[in-house]
Design brief:
Length: 226
């Protein structure tokens, strides 16, 4: 345990925590969107279980992330999953807090959190792993400390979504943006994306527009049916 008294350990720990603060913003949005349809007493449980399980998943993922990112089509599949999740989260509840509010399933919310976090963390965990430099204690401590940060961010986002429903649409657009980015970051398209840097932003914007456009169209149809 001598490494606990070294400056390098504490500097590395602060770096990992800071990286997670920066990179966990979109994850907090996903968690908040997934949990907002639950009854209030279940929201905190879903956030805690979802955040905790997501961090454990990141620890496991960090060990194999570099190898996973070498696989073709993996990020394409992950990006399409994110687009679907963004669409589902946008159409799964009403902005006016109608019948959908409070009727969600906690298991479904946690499942959504885990799938979205898994896909969105593929690139993020490489930065954390590089900072940890093979020190698993440092890696686990850094990610564990980030749990309350994600929980606080998610809880705050739910309150803001209740007061400002437009944040739900912006959150779904963010997930669509990340989904588009993830698809063009796939190893299969790496060379083409390097030759055409603008494609990164076009794909991200297209993902956001696709999720919000289809989501709003479905909301309009649901409103007419109701």
């Amino acid at each position: 345990m001598e490494f606990l008294s070294t400056a390098d350990f504490w500097i590395g720990l602060m770096k990992i925590v800071w990286i997670n603060i920066i990179l966990s913003g979109d994850n907090a949005v996903v968690i908040a969107l997934a949990a907002r349809s639950l009854p209030p007493e279940q929201q905190k449980k879903a956030i805690m279980f979802g955040s905790g399980a997501a961090v454990v998943l990141r620890i496991v993922l960090t060990v194999v992330a570099a190898k996973l990112l070498e696989l073709s089509f993996l990020q394409v599949i992950g990006g399409v999953l994110l687009l679907w999740i963004g669409y589902q989260l946008l159409t799964g509840g009403d902005d006016d807090e109608g019948e959908a509010k409070g009727t969600g399933s906690m298991a479904a919310a946690i499942r959504t959190i885990l799938i979205a976090d898994l896909v969105m963390s593929l690139d993020n965990v490489i930065a954390v792993a590089a900072t940890a430099q093979g020190n698993m204690v440092l890696l686990i401590l850094g990610l564990a400390i980030s749990i309350p940060l994600v929980i606080f961010g998610s809880t705050l986002m739910i309150k803001l979504m209740d007061r400002f429903p437009v944040i739900v649409t912006l959150g779904a657009a963010l997930i669509g943006w990340v989904g588009g980015e993830t698809i063009v970051n796939d190893n299969l398209l790496h060379g083409y994306t390097l030759a055409h840097p603008w494609l990164h932003y076009v794909a991200a914007a297209a993902g956001a527009v696709l999720v919000v456009g289809l989501g709003k169209l479905m909301q309009a149809r649901q409103a007419k049916t109701a």
